[in-house]
Amino acid sequence: MQLFPCPFCGPRDETEFHYGGDAGNIRPDGADVQIDRWANYLYLRTNPKGAAREIWVHMICGEFFVMERDTITHKVLSSAALDGEHAA
Hints:
Layout: E1 3-6, E2 10-13, E3 17-22, H1 35-43, E4 51-58, E5 64-70, E6 76-81, H2 84-87
Antiparallel strand pairs: 1-2, 3-4, 4-5, 5-6
Pfam families: SoxD
GO molecular function, one term: sarcosine oxidase activity
Organism: Mesorhizobium ciceri
């Protein structure tokens, strides 16, 4: 079991959280997006080794937040409430 730090509720069991995707993966805007740009948004990931910024949701309180964690050790480096500033 691993504890994840919800910025709203404090440390909670990892089973209460759901992964939302890479932070900074901005959805293309508009109806006439080129197919390769849409495919890149859907399928291409940076998959870094080491520190990664990710979007998570705490299913208990329903709040989304950004968590930075090490993909090798799974150590959580930070977590912060999600706002326009942290999403990119």
